[in-house]
Structures are given as C-alpha cells and as structure tokens.
Amino acid sequence: MANKLIGNAVVGQSGGPTAAINATLAGVIEGAFAHSDVIHKLYGMRNGIEGFIGERLSDLTGIFSDENGELNRDLLHVLTDTPAAALGSCRKKLPKPAEDPAFFENLIALFKKYDIRYFFYIGGNDSMDTVAKLTEYLKTSDYEMRVMGVPKTIDNDLAGTDHTPGFGSAAKYIASTMQEIVRDCAVYTTKAVTIVEIMGRDAGWLTASAGLANLVNGGGPDYLYLPEVNFDLDSFFADIEKAFEKHPNIVIGVSEGIRFADGRYVGEGAQSGSTDAFGHKYLSGTGKELEYAVKDKFGCKVRSIELNLPQRCAAHLASDTDLTESHTCGRTAMDAAVSGSTGCMVAMIREDGEEYKLRYETSEIAKIANAVRSVPREFINESGNNVTEECLRWILPLIQGEADIVYKNGLPVHFVIE
Amino acid sequence: MANKLIGNAVVGQSGGPTAAINATLAGVIEGAFAHSDVIHKLYGMRNGIEGFIGERLSDLTGIFSDENGELNRDLLHVLTDTPAAALGSCRKKLPKPAEDPAFFENLIALFKKYDIRYFFYIGGNDSMDTVAKLTEYLKTSDYEMRVMGVPKTIDNDLAGTDHTPGFGSAAKYIASTMQEIVRDCAVYTTKAVTIVEIMGRDAGWLTASAGLANLVNGGGPDYLYLPEVNFDLDSFFADIEKAFEKHPNIVIGVSEGIRFADGRYVGEGAQSGSTDAFGHKYLSGTGKELEYAVKDKFGCKVRSIELNLPQRCAAHLASDTDLTESHTCGRTAMDAAVSGSTGCMVAMIREDGEEYKLRYETSEIAKIANAVRSVPREFINESGNNVTEECLRWILPLIQGEADIVYKNGLPVHFVIE
Q1: Concatenated DSSP letters of A370-399
Q2: What digits encode the pLDDT tens for the residues A32-44?
Q3: CB-nearest partner of B411 from A216, A312, A416
Q4: What is B7-165+316-370+403-412's CATH topology?
Q5: How many Cβ atoms sit within 10 Å of the Cβ of residue A185?
Q6: Which of B231, B237, B238 is nearest to B256 (CA)?
Q7: Which residues contact A383 (CB under 8 A, 6 or more apart)?
Q8: A314 neighbors A21 (Cβ within 8 angstroms)
Q9: Cα separations in angstroms, B271 against A269, B257, B265, B286, B332
C-alpha cells in the first residue's frame, strides 16, 4: 500500500485539440473532488507545461465548486461537450533530463512552490514523452510527486491502449459527414469524382472510419486510401474507371499522409516545407493534387474536400461512447495516482468476446512513449484501396451514442475558462 | 372557386442540394395523401425536369403508403432528415417558349400520357425560371395543369420570400462549426490567422450567419467579409493588425464571391474558368489566395478552411425551424394548387412585431424569377468587415431547434429512393 500523499494537483492538456479532451479533464476534476481528503486544490496549467513554467494556473477546484463547495455537475457537463482544450495547449518538447537538469530543477522548484504532489498530462505521443521525461527525472530527485499520462489523439496511433480517447468522436464525425457527402454527390447524373482528404500523417485510422456507412447502410465512399499502403497513381486511375462502370458519382477518401512507393508524399507539391517543434512536416494539398491529376486524366468534374479542423473539433457530433471513455480515463488516472501509481499512462484494454467491453489499466510510460501504431495490413483489402469489414467492425463500437449537447439560442453552449 | 381538377401530380427537385429540400418534398407528399380525393398518384421526377423528359419517374404514393394505404409517417420523418435531393437533381435550363415551342409540346404530351394535372418544382432561382416558362407556355395551351414553385436555396438570395428554406440549416451548421473552429484555434498562444471560406457567390447571407456565436455567447469570428462590399487588401491587413492587439488567434470568415473594387474575384487566381449551364463561373480558392497573402504580409501561421459541401448537406445539424418551415412550404404548395392556384411560388412572410412569426403566401412567379436578393448594406457595419447586431438578430430565429435525427449504429439514417 502506497503512503497517503497529501497536497495539490495540477492538470494540463497538450498537443492538438479533440472533441473529447475536455471530457478527460472533466474526469480528472471529478476525481479531485472525490479525493478531497488528499487533494486540496486542483490547478489547471494554461497552455500545458509551457504555461506552468510561466506560472499561468487556473484554480479548477474553485471554478467547479458550487455554492456548497460540491462539484458543479452542470458545469462539468458543459465542459465535457466543449471542443478543443479548455486549458489551452502547447507543443513544447522537453529536453532530456541528462542534457538539461537545470530545466527540471526549475520545474521542481515550481512544484514545491505550489505544493504540487500530483501531475496529470492529457495528450498524444509527444505529451507522453513529457510524462516519461518528468518521470525519469523524478527518480533522481527527492521531491515526491506522482505523474500520470492520459492518452488523447484523434489519430488513434498511440501504442499501449486499444484505442485513444478522441478517436471515436472524430470517427463518428468523419463517417457521418462522408455519408452526407455521398448523398450530396449522388444527385446529379453527370460523371464526377469527389476526393475527400482526411487527417492522418502516418496512420489511416481516421480514413478507415470514413467507410463506416458502408457497413451500416451501404451509403459510404467507393474507395479509401491509407498511408499504410504505397499509393500508385495508375492503380488509382484504374480503380476510378472501374467504379464509373457502376455509377457516375465517385466518392473517395484519402489520408493526408499517403505516399508513393519512393517515399514522396502525394501532397508534396503543395507542401509548405515547414516543420513543427517535433520535426513533423506540415502537409496540405493531397486532395488538391489528386483533384488535378484526375481532372487531367478523365476530364470530368472533379472536386476535392479537405475535412480540416472540424474533424477534431466537431463536438456537436461527438460519440457518447468516446466521451464516457475519455472521462473514465481521466478519472482512472486520478484514482490510480491517489492509490500510489506514478510514471504510468492510462490504457483501455478491449476484453475478448462478441460484446464490446473495456477495462482500464495503467501501463508504465517508458514502454509506450513515442511508439506509433498503424492500421494493421490485414485491416486493409488486398488491392489496398479500401478497408475490410473486420476493420469497420473493430471501429464501430467506438462511435455509438450521441452526446447530450446543451443548446442555447440554436447553438451549442461551450465552457470557456477565462 | 376553382374547379376540382382530378388526376395525378408530379414533383421534382432541382439545383444544388440542401439539408431541408427533402423536408419540402415530405410536405408535398403529405399534401398528396391529404388530397387523395383529387390526386390519385404523386410521381417523383428523377433528376428534375431532365428525368421527367426521359420518363424516369418514381411512384411516391406507393413508396410512402403503409400496409393500409395510409401515409407512412416514420418513413416521411427519415426522408425529412435525409440531406440532398432524394429524387436527384439537374441543372437544365428550359428554352424560351417562343423560341422552342416543340420542346414544350413534347412536355405536354408527357403530361397527358401520365395524366399529370399538378406540377411541383422545388428549387432556387434557376428552378423558378423553369416554373415561369412552363406557366407562360401553358397560357397558350388548352391542357389544364397547375404549376407551383417551392423555393429552396441555402444562399437565401431568392426574392419574394422573407428567407429561403434550406438557409436556416446551413446557417446553423456554419455558425456552430465557426464556433468550434474558434475554440480550436484558441488553444495555442502563437500568432495565427485562420481564414474560413463560406459559400455565397453574390449574396453574403451564409457568411453573415457565421457571426451568430458573437450574438449568442461571444465565441465567434473576428471579421466577416461579404460580397456586397468591395474587398480591399490593405484594409484587410489593417483589420488583422488591429485584432492582433487583442489576441493572438484570429479567425475570419469570407464569402467565396468577394471581389475587388475593379470587379475581379479575390479567388480568381485559383479559378478554373469553367462555367455551368446557367453561365455561372465556378469559383474556388478565395480562402487559399488570402492565406498566401496573409502569410506573405505577416509571416505568421496561416490556415484556410473551405467549409465546402457540408455547408449544404450537414443534415445531422439541421435547424428544426428550417425543417418545419420547409415542410410547410411544400404542404402549402399542394394545398394552394388543389384550391386552384397556378403559376405561383410559395413565399414566407415575416409578421411585424417582436416575436418571430411567419405566414405563408403564394406569389405570382413571373414577378419573382431571376431576381437576386443580397444582404442589405445596413446589415453590414460601416467598415465593411462584419455584420451588424440587427443582421444577426434577423437570422437568429431561423436556426432555432435541433432536428430529431434517427441514429442507427451510431450514424444518421438516410432514406434513399432506389
């Protein structure tokens, strides 16, 4: 049994926004209220670790207390359904502890100043890297603090968990929108190709989810091209020709990160060339490049649609399953830390059996950080131009249920922490 | 009192799809069942007048009958919430009756063949042109048939009606999505400009609706640029500089059709140059062009987002007010035709007074067709970079209420007429 560690807690959000990252924050807040015997105050870092270093903190215990000092559940509901990171985000990459110990000494001084004994960080691969480095440094320090990572990414490319919080809501939005686009494109009788560009630099999970309507009611796209398979322009043209034999309106989903066999990105022509703090290349224009290629080849009407930011922020169509799971991940992190866990990431494990069922675990962060999980080859058909039914059945449970959005004056109500 | 005209009816959908055009079709279907004493059968033209000429017809009375021959209201509900034109659409422009009487003689022969005595056409400006020409020709013919136009267009640019069915749903989607994009863009502290391109060639109604969050809860975009005001790049840059004094994340909405003072489209650089059957120029790339311009000028992160097709087909976020009004327009057309009206378009008239209230009328089509209604200058602020509160208050009633979408397996259920 771990010792009872009494003090304050801090929680931060990092990396790209999702429709469910605030549901995880809500789970951490709920946990802090439930463990008020050991956690006196829960701080929110504004803009992640960067804001913490600048001592920009919000008193979440105060914000979410009602007049009796109890958790304000109505406010928590609105927070849950608010897209993007309510605390703000950052993309700061921490130095390696061995290379810049002064950076970590400064952090420890701040933890001491605010009596922070629990540290929660909600994010993707890069954020888990932050958790791992902080954990590594703490082993060499005599300051006692428990550090927990909570996964988040619409890309679903994080290792060590069955899927990632945020993915289900993005998948539901993409699948629904794709179904609507297919309806829209079906109204005319003239030959037309519509290319929908979907987020996903290295993993095609989001593009795969665009096919869900095909499983549910047959109203999905004709083809899906994922970054896990090399893209070949001649095969692509042959696929289109084949689809034109069946109907005049072809709808295609492509991952932004699809590449030719020689490694070049299809969208490279329109690429800005700039990279982010983690060395990721910014991509844009995969759909546009293919639009021009298909127009040249077939001379028919061609249109490209970039689903863009709404993929990750369309909270109005969030998956209730995803929100509930995201919340539980946050709550599990808090419960586990209070019970003595540290240096871990919360993971969702899918139970065996017909019925979809999850259990929540904590896994050692050092084993997980920086590993990328792609769509397995067996989830993609042999021709490499679509996903298998098995893949769609794997994704389907994650988009079940609709969020209970609070509307006011015709628009969803969002919670903004000032 | 008009004579009782007994026979069959036909209904068609034309022009671009919307999230509410099937609600209007549902109103026509409901009306046909209610007037089964005079209307024996309601046919649906597949792909508008073009399909009618090819005798591609669906028996809507049969499709929407339950086992007792009554209207199947569950099916009608699903049809109402299905985006895009369930009967398909076309963009065919009819010849002038005086120039090609043979074209109309052929049409009359088909009306006789199917005993069509009622003709309903749901569409925008170009569709009302079809209704007007058919009406004109019928005056010279001894074939008795009643012709009604029912307005539809997300652009809200049709004269003779307070607003158009389909606009409210598009406005609700755009306002909600803009609010989500603003949330998403607010998470980082680095300077960034996000430019959202919204549909609207000549009228800025849809772009205006992007500002609704500013009225409701303050979470809307910084600026809106409409085609009703000449666009000036220097003023645009000055606007951005001013907004950067307040916060690092700027979100801007622009109509696809904004033009410089000399008449050139801002998006002209990326324009395909092709035109549709009505001589409309296809535009694309207004947001992209501005993205490059702002990047050159400010050197900060700039992103452009084209809301694209989801603006008109996102039925999952349709306005309940819009769906109800669209339905009523269809029903009104049927009731009015049975009562003797012909050569008319259904119009919605907003009653005076504080409370939002509509009445439905029919107006002579000849007076309406081909007139375009823009956003009045007094609905745009003096600087021409946003809309007024009065404008937002005018739009607000149209986005009220959420559609009662039927979900199955996590996705909205659509009705597809095979």
Answers
A1: T-B----GGGB-TTSSSB-HHHHHHHGGGG
A2: 999 999 999 999 9
A3: A216
A4: Rossmann fold (3.40.50)
A5: 25
A6: B231
A7: A235, A239
A8: no
A9: 18, 11, 9, 9, 41
What residues contact residue A215 under an 8 Å CB cut-off, 6+ apart? A389, A392, A393, A396, B409
Q: Which amino acid is at A71?
A: L
| Residue B252: its H or E element | strand B249-255
Q: A361-389 b/e with 16+ CB inside 10 Å = b?
A: ebbebeebbeeebbbeeebbeeebbbbbe
**In the prediction, which pLDDT does A217 show?**
80
For B135-167, the pLDDT digits (tens) are 999 999 999 999 999 999 999 998 889 999 999
Nearest to B83 among A47, A184, A303 (CB): A184
B176 contacts in chain A (CB < 8 Å): 316, 411-412
CB B88 within 8 A of CB B330: no
* Residues whose CB is less than 8 angstroms from the CB of residue B242 and which lie 6 or more positions away in sequence, other chains included: none
Q: Which two tokens stand for residue A226?
A: 């994922």
> What is the spatial distance between Cα B249 and Cα B396, in angstroms, rounded to a whole number?
26
Tell me which CATH code domain A7-165+316-371+401-412 carries. 3.40.50.450
pLDDT surpasses 60 at A64: yes
Nearest CA in chain A to B90: A188
Q: Which two tokens stand for residue B77?
A: 């509900």
Instruction: Assign 3-state DSSP to chain B and report helix, strand, coil percentages, each to 5.
Output: 40, 20, 40
User: What is the pLDDT, as a whole number, of residue B216?
Assistant: 87
CA-wise closest residue to B212 among B238, B180, B239: B180
Question: Tell me, what's the pLDDT at A269?
Answer: 60
The dihedral through the CA atoms of B348, B58, B45, B344 has a sign that is: negative
Number of residues that this document lists for chain A: 418
Q: Where in chain A is the domain with CATH 3.40.50.460?
A: 168-314
Cβ(A179)–Cβ(A213) under 8 Å? yes
DSSP H or E run through B28: helix B21-34
All CATH 3.40.50.450 domain ranges in chain B, comma separated: 7-165+316-370+403-412
DSSP for A286-338?
HHHHHHHHHHHHH-SEEEEEE--THHHH-GGG-BHHHHHHHHHHHHHHHHHHH
Residues of chain A numbered 203-222 and touching chain B (CB < 8 Å)? 212-213, 215-217, 219
Q: B403 and chain A: CB distance < 8 Å anywhere?
A: no
List the single range of A198-207, A266-275, B11-20, B170-179 with lowest mean pLDDT. Answer: A266-275
Q: Is the pLDDT of residue A412 over 70?
A: yes
Work out whether the CA dihedral B343, B345, B351, B357 comes out positive or negative.
positive
Report the distance separating Cα B104 and Cα B51, nearest Å.
15
B382-391 CB burial, b ≥16 within 10 A, e <16: eebbbbbeeb
Element (H, E) at A102: helix A101-113
Mean pLDDT lowest among A243-257, A356-370, B9-23: A356-370
Domain A168-314 has CATH 3.40.50.460: yes
Interchain contact, B396 vs A409, CB within 8 Å: yes
| pTM (two decimals) | 0.95
Which one of B181, B296, B404, B411 would you mutate to disrupt binding with A, by most A Cβ within 10 Å of its Cβ? B411
Mean pLDDT of the region A242-270 = 92
* Interface predicted TM-score of the whole assembly (ipTM), two decimals: 0.95
- What is the rounded distance in angstroms from the CA atom of residue B31 to the CA atom of residue B25? 10
Comparing A307 with A270, which gets the higher pLDDT?
A: A307
Which one of A81, A126, A129, A155 is the catalytic residue? A155
